[in-house]
Structures are given as structure tokens and as C-alpha cells.
Amino acid sequence: MCIKTYLPALIVLATCQQALPQDFGQLRAEMVSQQLEPRGINHTPTLEAMRKVERHRFVPPACQQDAYRDTPLPIGYGQTISQPFMVAMMTQLLQPGPDDRILEIGTGSGYQAAILAEMTGEVYTMEIIPQLGAKAKQLLSELGYRNVTVIVGDGYNGWAEKAPYDAIIVTAAPEEVPPPLIAQLKEGGKIIVPIGAQTEEQTLVLIEKRNGELVKTALIPVRFVPFTRSKDMP
After folding, report:
1. pLDDT tens-digit profile of 99-144?
2. Domains of the chain
3. In Å, how far are 5, 77, 148 from 133, measured between CA atoms?
4. Would you please indicate which residues are annotated as catalytic (active-site) residues?
5. Which end of the chain lies in a sparser environment, N or C, as judged by fewer CB atoms within 10 Å?
6. pTM of the full predicted structure?
């Protein structure tokens, strides 16, 4: 479950064409220097991860030539891989530490999980579409990410077995934050989540748990795919 776009700068979903030979390393470096750093991404571990993780491996072959543009791309099953800026922004807001345990709701192709895995101890990522979950699990394993666990299931309930989490990142929009996720957040932890109905403007919200209380900060308008529940699946 990934971001279609964010507002106010509307991003149009790219149409994939036949892949052409590319210097992907150079394109990643330019993505960071031209798209991320000028727009306020300055968290060093986030920038290093964005330079390193091969985004073109997480998109269909026909989309690889567009992998380092600042746009979401289709990954099948009606889902997208989030645009690089939004991945970087959400990661920077969490600022995960090297010993943190992070829960991601909405694995998609696994790109966000790979970014987090570059800078933290344990990543648990949940995907409700079995086919996407299986593909992400295989790819992350092939790329050597031993600190990522992919779970197929309803992310509304989180994964209590591995709680509490230092941070939780949600990449689909619920109308309100699922209470199980709040319960599974460690004291001092953070949740980054888009909130709002699919037919309304959504807002990216940062939630921090301080002394048992929730401190919420509304950030920017966004447009995410809807938060899917098991009951909504065909």
C-alpha cells in the first residue's frame, strides 16, 4: 500500500515504458542531490540509505528507467511504490536508531522496508495482499536484508508478538489511527501515518507517545491509497 501522490504539488503516476540501459548508481546520486536535499531532507542516515537502496529493483522491469524520478510507480494489484521524496520525508521524521524495532504497515514492493533496514535493527512489515507480500519477501531476501520480516495479514491489528515498537510507519490512509497500533507503540515512540477518507483531503500526521499521552502534529496534505482490511478483500 503505497502513496499515489502528495499535495499541494500534484504528482501524476508515470506510465511505464520499455526499460533502457541506465547508470542506476548515478541516477540514485542525482535523486538525492537534486530531489531530496534541496527539499529539506538532511538526515544523514536517510540520505545514505536513499543513495544505496536500488529502487529500480523494487519496480517492474518496464518501469526501471523511471525508478529515480520523483514519482510513484505501479507495482501491480492496484498498488504503487511511493515517490522517493515521500519515502525520505517519512523516514526522516521517524529518525530510526540503529537498535530500533520498527513496524511498517503496507509492505508494497518492499522499498520502504529496505530503506529502514539500512539504518535500524529490526523491521517488521505487514502486507495484506498475499502476492505482493510474497514478492517483497523474496526480493528482500535476495538483496540480503536479514533484519526484515515480512508478514501477510491485516495491518489494522499490527503484530503484537513483537511489540512494543520504537516506531510505526503506515503507508495507506485509515480514517483514524488503528488503536492496536497505538497500544503497540513504545513510550517515547513515533507513528507516521496519513489520516483521512479516500474521498477527502488526507493529512500526514506525526504521533508521539509521551508519558502515556499522544502528541499529534499535522504536517502536509497527502493522497494515499486506502487502508485495506481483511473484510474488504475479495
Report:
1. 999 999 999 999 999 999 999 999 999 999 999 999 999 999 999 9
2. 3-232 (3.40.50.150)
3. 22, 11, 12
4. 82
5. C
6. 0.89
